Amino acid sequence: MSSASASSALEASGIRVELDDGTPVVDGIDLRVNPGEILGLVGESGSGKTTTALSLFGHSGRGIVMTAGEIVVDGEVLEGDRRFQQARGRLVSYTPQNPGAALNPSRRVMQSVQDMIAAHRREADAEQLSVQLFERVGLPVERSFTERYPHQLSGGQQQRVCIAASLAPEPALIVLDEPTTGLDVVTQDRILKELLRLRDEQNAAMLYITHDLAVVSQIASRIAVMYAGRIVEQGPTESVLREPRHPYTRGLVASTPDHRRPRTLEPMPGVSVGVGEWPQGCPFAPRCPQRVDRCETAFPPTEQVTADHDVRCYEWRQTPPATAHSVVPGNVKSQEEHPQEPVVLEVRALHAEYRSRHETMVAIEDISLTVERGACVALVGESGSGKTTTGRVIAGLHPNATGEILLQGKPLPLHARRRSAEQRRCLQIIFQNPYQALNPRHTVAEEVARPAHVLRGMSRRGAREEVRRLLEAVRLPAATARRYPRELSGGERQRVAIARALAAEPEVIICDEITSALDVSVQAVILELLRELRHDLGLSLVFITHDLGVVATIAERTLVLENGVICERGSTGSILESPQHPYTRRLLAAAPSISLAAESWTLQGSG
Amino acid sequence: MRRIAAGLGTLLALSVLVFAATNVLPGNAAELTLGRNATPPALHKLEHRLGFDHSIAHRYGSWLGGLLHGDLGNSAVAVAQNAPEPSIAHAISTPLKNSAVLALITTLLLIPLTLLLGAFAGIHARKKVDHMISTPALVFAALPEFVTATLLIVVFFGWLGALPPVSLVAPGTSPLSNVEVLVLPVLTLLLASLAAGIRQVRSGVIEVLQEDYVHVAQLNGLRGRTLLWGYVLRNALAPSVQIVAQTIQYLVGGIIVVESVFSYPGIGTYLVQAVTERDVTAVQSTVILLAAVYILINLLADLLVVFLVPKLRTELS
Amino acid sequence: MSTAVATPSPPHSRRPRIPAFIAADRGGQVGLVFLVLIVFVALFGPFIAPHSPNVPIGIPGQGSIGGSPLGLDQLGRDVLSRALSGGRTALALGALATVATYLVGVMLGLLAGYARNTALDGITMRTVDIFISLPAILVMLVLVTALGGSSWVLVLGAAVVLFPGVTRIVRTAAAETATRGYVEAAVARGEKRGAILRREILPNIMAPIIADLGVRFSWSIILIASVNFLGLGLSPPASDWGLMISENRSVIPTNPWAVVAPALALVLLILGVNLLGDAYVRHLGRSSSR
Question: Min CA distance, B107 vs chain A (Å)?
């Protein structure tokens, strides 16, 4: 054991972290990271990945304490507050999720890096070393840059500063906690490449925490998948993603959209298990298609799939391959189908601006689009591209606009208040944040019944019946009607929001980033639901997203927005396969994808 | 610049409000001053001498014009009593100095104590020292100044017989020549203002301690002076400056009550006297003067905060 | 976020007699005891007072004697009886001022917050700024100068002093809530402004409003008591704690109880209100951090 740990950067075994009352948060965590290796720790929200990461720093937050486990970093056994305190930064360093909030706002960025040098490498020339570190992470080293404050940097630059700071003490292990979440794809791509270069140049060991399989497929050499506080599968990236053995891993892979290989998603049934709800046996058992009796009585031990690939599932041999069900949907076919359908919504030369107290900013310019009955049109772009503004103008929520909107051929006033009830009924909107989508003071029934009552003039009793029908339509149990939003998960809330939109019996629903706050497995459920609803009800969708994988999954036609202008439009298939505009190409090249990573594995394998 | 303009605008708006409140609302100054059973000729005479026979707008204009030249006008009561020197400026020059002495001493003690105790309690939040600071602060923050003052009098004068219950200052002498009289008023102001300030500085420090950048710095092994001063206290400073400014602003109001409790011959006692006598012109001018001080403190604090917060500073240039 | 299932407690299932934020909080418990005590005194004090509050029964400034445990005041009236009947004005005027403050403050704040960044919002908030830039006690003094020192003026003064703070808090909360999905959805389905404010916004900003209630209430009590103390509010022989403290300063050497009793009563009242308010704020902090 000790000889093995001398060669690896991190050797952790049996980590258990509990709440004050003994409720386990994570349990039985074994992790190993070798020098020059990036281990991807993957899990959805609440799976315990950040708790696991913080345990490596001996960090017991308020009400949280590590009760078991051994952590060896670079041959040093970390035990007791003092050893951990001395190891922080020097042996293990931390790069946070939100670089904007993680940098001291009143310190110049170079100074932040020099603080780390002063704390851990007294002998070094702080000035010189910090310049070197800036160069190493690809930041300018002119005084005019190094003397800036964090708020004067872009998100990507801020994250590079954080990485430079965590490199400064030359730690044995760098922990990166969702370092690119919140950055746009192009910046994310650059940071990922930078990390790979650092890994190779410095022979650095990294623990990369993320919820995003596509990201991890591009950066990690090995992957550990967490579910409900345990690592359920661990192994080389290629074999875990190509032949997942744990049904949860398989479910994740099948739920992750891929713009390079569009396919129908396969949502997992049920919801994930939270802290304090662990069942006696395997926590995934209630959702598992291959569950057997003993799954419900005991958590499976670690079993070896291959020498370096292990899994905690009794029935791992039964897990079907993840790619078997991946079928490319008939994008081209449906594209040909829809032109015969009548146009429901037409937008001509839309122009909108934002007015703050000091200035007026153009948000969108000359946006035109048409949506046929039953079609889904995607608006894609990075933050600030004007895609959300476009959706809000169409919904009548952003009156500082000019242009023409035609609903079923008739002109539609720009302000929601000036539209007739019938017009408002036909056009519904669903928003990004499920946690703010529903009035916390209303029951689900009240919330869903309201549009039926206001826009369709339904009586209270009729609306009650309608609520039951709608909840069924979004696959929620009838008892949900009496619940309050805070008793629901994010995915359930978003389904209620969809039910509320459906309550108006709309022709068109504008979906504004409605899955981007959700875990991928929940996103898959929502996307599949929307697909079925379109099929059953002939609904049209305007789907706003930044995620090209989602676009590939749901939309027949796509409009790419850059700085408020449409830079490319066409069928989703043609845009994804042969993008014309340089911006579209840049976006596509930067977007992470499992199949892209798979191609490089094949290359490596054959070469 | 915009802030200075806003401050002046606010002051102007306040002058209108104060003038309107004391002049347009029922009862006129002369009648209020002389009482209801004054004879009509006496009323007319006083109204004329005070300029009350002009239109309201004209009176406001001349009052404001006077203020801008540093002329606070004449006290209605003094005019009515045919006092030799009825100007308000003359009457308040000594009280103003006395109040300044009181406020200045309090402020000098207040600033370091607020910052030190507040930061100390914040850093050691929920530990014993914090409770030792925070619990008394909670109690004193809840007490009106006059209650604190009266209880102090009960203790120091009533039981211990150590300090005078009133802070009389002989005309023509400085309160500094008899420091004893300042102890209780300063102590009262300190207790009342420190408490609120400490609580807020404390929660400001706690807030910074929970920021991501402090957490990340800790995980990366920063500790000791760099962490405490460079990360925690440095970022808690700007909000603390605002809190201290609010506390000093509070003194402008607090001093009025505290001076009255101790009959300390300052601007507060003068103002309360003027209100008691319904001396409208004196009230107007004194109130505007104090409001100006109040707004000035606010302005200085804003400028200091801009200087202390890099984000605000760089946006300016 | 899947932990949401962990606490499925419907809000209307059963209402405990003592709200959870008090039951679980030491400060809140102490505050409740203080407040109940003072409210009891204010309501029933006059009935259990051993003497009439306005009739002299002995030598002015006399210390504790039989039948008069707290001694006599500067006019020879029973201190205990006066203290027992002095709470009504403090409580009633303070409560009235608080109600007035919230009526105005919530209304203005809601309108300004919902109409965020428009002229209506701008004008309302600039007006509020102006009212905030005058020390509270000065506002009271100006009003007393103009209108005299009646109860109504005291209530009006306290409301004028306090409404800007409420407006600001409500405005901030309402503006933030107005960007939520459920409010936007209501706008998009064409609900009327009144309905949106009442149905969608107001119920969801009650927490910050209530959290602030304790501070405003104790402030209005302090302000009104201070003006009474200065002798510019209620006039003798009214028995009001603020006034009593002021009247009896001359008898401190012989009977300190004459000022200590009303002072303690005021302290208990204000501290009780503040402790309850703080407990509620802590409760909010706990439930939001979960």
Answer: 27
Chain C positions with Cβ closer than 8 Å to A:
1-8, 10-11, 117, 180-182, 184-191, 199-200, 203-204
The answer to whether the CB atoms of B151 and C260 lie below 8 A apart is yes
Asked whether this complex has an ipTM greater than 0.90, the answer is no
Boundaries of domain holding C219: 28-43+78-288
Domain count, chain C: 1
Contacts of B among chains (3+ CB pairs under 8 A): A, C
CATH placement of domain A3-91+171-318:
3.40.50.300
Which chain A residues contact residue C204 at CB under 8 A? 439-441
The subunits that touch chain A, with at least 3 C-beta pairs less than 8 Å apart, are B, C
Query: Mutate which of C182, C187, C201, C289 to test chain A, going by most A C-beta atoms within 10 A?
Result: C182
Query: Which residues in chain C are closer than 8 Å to A500, comparing Cβ atoms?
Result: 185
Q: Is residue C11 within 8 angstroms of chain B, CB to CB?
A: no
Query: pLDDT for A365-392, tens place per residue?
Result: 999 999 999 899 999 998 888 999 999 9
Q: A-B interface: how many C-beta pairs under 8 angstroms?
A: 79
| CATH no. of A334-408+507-597 | 3.40.50.300
In a domain, C216, yes or no: yes
- What's the pTM? 0.85
What DSSP letter does each residue of C101-119 carry, written as one string? HHHHHHHHHHHHHHTTTSH
Q: Which residues, 6 or more positions from A562, have their beta carbon under 8 angstroms from its beta carbon?
A: A381, A382, A385, A583
DSSP label of C57? -
In chain C, which residues have their Cβ closer than 8 Å to the Cβ of A419?
190
Number of inter-chain CB pairs under 8 A, A vs C: 104
B220/A94 CB distance under 8 A: yes
Mean pLDDT computed over every residue of chain A: 89
Domains for chain B: give ranges and CATH numbers.
2-80 (no CATH), 92-316 (1.10.3720.10)
Cα separation values, B34 from A310, A501, B44, C232, Å = 98, 72, 11, 18
pLDDT, one tens digit per residue, over C73-123 is 878 788 888 888 888 888 899 999 999 999 999 999 999 999 887 888 889
Hunting for tokens 């919904």 — which residue is that? Answer: A395
The pLDDT assigned to B30 comes to 61
Residues of chain A with CATH 3.40.50.300: 3-91+171-318, 334-408+507-597
A327 pLDDT exceeds 50?
A: no
* Coil vs helix vs strand at A561: strand
Give chain B's mean pLDDT. 83
> Number of B:C CB contacts under 8 A?
124
- The neighbouring-strand residues paired with A176 are A95, A208
User: What pLDDT band is residue A321 in, cutting at 50, 70 and 90?
Assistant: confident
Angle at A153 between CA A151 and CA A156, to 5 degrees: 125
Asked whether A391 and A510 are in contact (CB, 8 A), the reply is yes
Q: CB of C261 within 8 A of CB of C64? A: no
Contact list, A152 vs chain B (CB under 8 Å):
314
Edge-to-edge order in the sheet of strand A557-562: A427-430, A508-512, A540-545, A376-380, A557-562, A565-571
Decide if A437 and C10 are in contact by the 8 Å CB cutoff: no
* CATH code of C274's domain: 1.10.3720.10
A98 contact residues in B (CB cutoff 8 A): 212
Q: Is the pLDDT of residue A332 over 60?
A: no
Minimum distance, in Å, between the CA of residue A297 and any CA atom of chain C: 22
What pLDDT, in 10s, does the model give residues B266-284?
Answer: 899 999 988 888 788 888 8
CA distance B201 to B98: 30
User: Which residues 162-221 of C have a C-beta within 8 angstroms of B?
Assistant: 218
Residue A58 corresponds to which tokens in the numbers above?
């001996």
